[in-house]
Design brief:
Elements (H helix, E strand, L loop, with lengths): L41 E7 L1 E2 L11 E2 L7 H19 L4 E8 L7 H15 L7 E6 L6 H10 L3 E7 L3 H6 L6 H13 L4 E8 L6 H13 L4 E6 L7 H7 L8 H17 L3 E4 L2 E3 L6 H7 L4 E4 L4 E6 L2 E7 L3 H9 L8 H11 E6 L2 H12 L6 E2 H8 L6 H12 L4 E3 L2 E3 L8 H8 L1
Parallel strand pairs: 1-4, 1-11, 2-3, 4-5, 5-6, 6-7, 7-8
Antiparallel strand pairs: 8-10, 9-10, 12-13, 13-14, 15-17, 16-17
The structure holds iron/sulfur cluster.
Iron/sulfur cluster binds next to loops.
């Protein structure tokens, strides 16, 4: 459920209402929640690859399984073995955030998740204050007791896949919870004393009005959430919905209705005091998702677990890797890493076998990714600073011309070296960003 490059309202044509006066005010471009110091170090992402059932719109790596069949302890052992090898290869690094995503990590026995969390902390940051530690949860596997146990384990943020508060729409989305269960999970998380609770919502589903999207966002925010992620439903080709759409048998919302829902959610959450700080994300002051901020700013993160992606710097070169995506194959290979001790060379050689794919990232690709992700933020991206850090050319002639055209059309702002997509143009962000790559 980790939506790194999550959906953007894709209205590229047609008349869409701009974000009106009641919409979230512009964030001054240099005013951000996070200092560079807070964002130093690496993020750690742990993928938990199982779900009770596969949702028909989902293209994340998730394998359906009955809860009792999930090899919870063996998987924790495998992730800990991988962690030891990555630590030997990368050396000691401060950790800025830890994120358990999936799949459905709330299906993991808390004792096993706790073992992994303690392993990460003792490997990377034994003497530092705890970083942001998030666990993604499904309402069907989150109650008060689980939330309390996660809190006791050191988790300080839950992200709950609510997705909607209408039973019929939840059934259409293939979810195994209903609205009552979703509300119960959010209430339980808040009442457990968990410092930060976020909920995911999906809008732009056929038959859903903008008013209902806004009402659901408001209803959730009123429960005491610190953060909301709201995504337009997108149809990915490799999913059950993708197959239905190809046959013309999937009801879909018109583009204008999706854009209207985006604006309605923006207005509703602004009224609740949540800042729209990224195209799909809203937070109360000081409550932005630090882990995702790291992705959007193009910072390194270590990926652990089956199918996990990571981006790390080794010997001055940035690499992106993905671990083996089959749970059994991953566990067999990772458990074989045990016993390598702290030998960086042997660990590196063994880790390459664990990785399904790996590529060195050129400076140009890194800068393109900075634009692709950084321009989703209200604060935008400091292009020249990012280019200097990466060692890339910030302004090839084609990008300079594209930026001038976009600025003339009011689709892009330049504040010194920082580029920002103004909020009224967020509905067109996919097209704007692709012009700048
Ligand atoms: S619960 Fe989340 S990760 Fe699992 S199948 Fe559904 S959308 Fe995908």
């Amino acid at each position: 459920m980790n939506k790194l490059t999550s959906v953007t309202p894709s209205a590229k044509t047609g008349s869409v209402r701009s974000l009106g006066p009641s919409a979230t005010p512009e964030v001054p471009p240099n005013e951000t929640d996070e200092s560079d110091e807070q964002l130093s170090g690496v993020g750690v992402y742990v993928h938990f690859p199982w779900c009770i059932k596969k949702c028909p719109y989902c293209d994340f790596l998730s394998v359906p399984s009955a809860r009792q069949d999930i090899p919870a302890a063996r998987y924790a052992d495998a992730v800990l073995a991988e962690l030891a090898a990555r630590r030997a290869e990368l050396g000691a690094q401060p950790v800025r955030s830890i994120f358990f995503g999936g799949g459905t990590p709330s299906l993991w026995r808390v004792a096993e998740l706790r073992r992994v969390l303690e392993g990460i902390i003792s490997a990377f940051c034994p003497d530092s204050p705890p970083p942001e530690i998030t666990v993604e949860c499904n309402p069907g596997s989150l109650g008060y007791d689980t939330a309390r146990k996660l809190l006791d384990a050191g988790v300080n943020r839950l992200s709950i896949g609510v997705q909607g508060l209408d039973d019929e729409r939840l059934r259409f989305l293939g979810r195994w919870h209903d609205a009552e269960k979703a509300l119960g999970a959010v209430r339980a998380a808040v009442q457990s004393g968990m410092p930060r609770v976020s909920a995911d919502l999906i809008y732009g589903v056929a038959g859903q009005s903008p008013e209902s999207a806004a009402a659901e966002a408001s209803q959730l925010a009123e429960l005491g959430l610190s953060h909301v992620s709201a995504y337009a439903l997108t149809i990915e080709p490799q999913t059950a919905f993708g197959a239905l759409a190809r046959k013309g048998r999937l009801p879909q919302a018109p583009e204008q209705a999706v854009a209207d829902a985006f604006l309605a959610v923006d207005e509703a959450l602004a009224r609740q005091g949540l800042e729209h700080y990224e195209i799909s994300n809203f937070a109360r002051p000081g409550q932005r998702a630090q882990h995702n901020i790291g992705y959007w700013r193009g910072l390194d993160y270590v990926g652990l677990g089956c199918g996990a992606w990571g981006t790390v710097t080794r010997d001055g070169q940035r690499f992106r890797y993905r671990n083996r995506p089959q749970p059994e194959g991953y566990m067999d290979q990772a458990l074989g890493l045990g016993g390598l001790g702290c030998d960086p060379e042997r660990s590196s050689a063994a880790l390459r076998q664990l990785e399904h794919e790996s590529e060195a990232l050129s400076a140009d690709v890194q800068l393109q990714e900075c634009l692709l992700l950084g321009l989703r933020l209200a604060e935008g991206v400091d292009l020249e600073r990012a280019a200097a850090r990466i060692g890339a050319e910030p302004w090839p002639r084609a990008r300079r011309r594209a930026a001038e055209r976009l600025i003339e059309r009011g689709r892009l702002l330049q504040h010194g070296t920082r580029l920002v997509i103004p909020k009224p143009a967020w509905l067109f962000s996919d097209g704007i960003i692709s012009e700048l790559l």
